[in-house]
Design brief:
The chain is α/β, with parallel strands linked by helices. The chain has one domain: P-loop containing nucleotide triphosphate hydrolases (Rossmann fold). 32% of the residues lie in helices and 30% in strands. It contains nine helices and twelve strands. The strands form three sheets. It has a six-stranded mixed beta sheet with strand order 6-7-8-3-9-10, with helices on both faces. The chain has a four-stranded antiparallel beta sheet with strand order 2-1-4-5, covered by helices on one side. Strands 11-12 form a two-stranded antiparallel ribbon. The two termini are 35 Å apart.
């Protein structure tokens, strides 16, 4: 039984197909990468998997139960969603924003207890945001705010994290750090799904990849099965060098294919 799955889901906006017949699953212990060019439907698929948007056809399942039948509180405890370009819009301290991740476990009248505070502290350490715990979050850079919003998710201790381009605003050090903590989260009984444009990071950290094109699933499978020169040329319109060795799969883009556009 998969931790989370989508079965033949379609999604339309103003009758325009955004996703068409997508099948998807993630199992415990997996870090899944959603890849594809701009407009391929990656973010739309991620929102369907969280239950934020509803498919026009098909169903999303959490532990084999339709997501539509699971309470909002249980979904909040099970699924952590990091939006693309995640930023805070509240003039709160970093520690208070991270503490919002404990809300699914509290009554409206409760204050954070000792266990909650411990989880908040651990989340800030994991994301290296502890140093600015007392800063007002809106004064931080975009990349720093992304790390804070990721810490809020870790404070919730979700079984499954869904992150939409979590490294886009980060420097190389923090890109690797975020991918490492997501990889660590996915070990054991938990899992993570991440939208990525950096195919090198996808090759290095992900267990399996789903390659989308024009709202359809072009292919899915192990990294070496998806990141082939042929698939990259067909979907991205880019000639590339793919090297597979004991260290995994590495990717280098060489040039655009001038007569082809994704």
């Amino acid at each position: 039984m998969s931790l989370l799955s989508a079965r033949t889901v379609d999604y339309r906006i103003d009758r325009i197909p955004i996703l068409d017949g997508i099948d998807f699953h993630v199992d415990s212990g997996e870090l899944i990468g959603l890849i594809g060019p701009n407009g391929a439907g990656k973010s739309s698929l991620l929102r369907l998997l969280t239950g934020i948007t509803i498919p026009d056809r098909g169903e999303v399942y959490l532990d084999d139960v339709p997501l539509s039948k699971i309470s909002a509180q249980q979904r909040a405890r099970s699924l952590g969603y990091l939006v693309q370009g995640a930023e805070a819009h509240w003039p709160f301290s970093v520690e208070k924003v991270v503490g919002l991740g404990r809300l699914p476990y509290q009554k409206w009248w409760q204050r954070p207890g000792r266990e909650d505070q411990l989880k908040i502290e651990q989340a800030m350490k994991k994301t290296e945001t502890l140093a600015y715990r007392n800063r007002i979050v809106t004064t931080l850079s975009g990349g720093e705010q992304t790390l804070v919003m990721l810490a809020r998710i870790f404070a919730t201790e979700n079984q499954l994290i869904l992150a939409d381009e979590p490294v886009a605003a980060l420097d190389p050090y923090h890109q690797l750090h975020v991918m490492e903590v997501l990889r660590s989260h996915a070990d054991g009984a938990r899992a993570a799904i991440v939208v990525l444009h950096d195919l090198g990071l996808a090759a290095r950290f992900c267990d399996r990849l789903y390659l989308l094109r024009h709202g359809r699933l072009h292919c899915a499978g192990a990294v070496g099965e998806v990141l082939t020169r042929e698939h990259i040329a067909e979907v991205y319109g880019v000639d590339s060098r793919i090297v597979e060795d004991e260290g995994g799969v590495s990717f280098t883009s060489l040039s655009r294919i001038s007569d082809q556009h994704p």
